[in-house]
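To start, one record:
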Amino acid sequence: MGMLPAIESGTGKRIRVKAYSAERKEALQRRMMPPENKMVSELARETGITEQTLYTWRRQLKAQGVAVPGKGLFAEQISTWRQACMAANANAAQSGKGQRGQSKDDQKRIRALEKELNRKEKALAEVAALLVLRKKAQAIWGDEAED
């Protein structure tokens, strides 16, 4: 870590600014993002870099369009959610096809049962009509045994 020359502040005081290598800065920026999501205060204690510098680096990431913790979604989250959604939709489509196939089979069976029921109702009505006619005939002509 080299030191930059002192710069003038607005108050006439000279301030020394530390320079950090790009690799170190990127490594620390990565630690502030998922999956680690290190808190700035914790990183500052570990590394000795001021919180202000770390917040500045995180703000720079945000300005570059990188989602930082607590702000927006991460690509890993989106891909995981998308896979879960696709799997759920595939299962729904499969079960929908199965239900439609079962529904068609059920409808065929219902039609067959209704047809059989109608046939049996007609047969029963016919037998009932024959019984009524037989009783009327017996009432009119009497029992055959009487003849």
The chain has a mean pLDDT of 81. The chain has four helices and two strands. The CA atoms of residues 99 and 105 lie 10 Å apart. Helices lie at 22-32, 40-47, 51-63, 75-141.
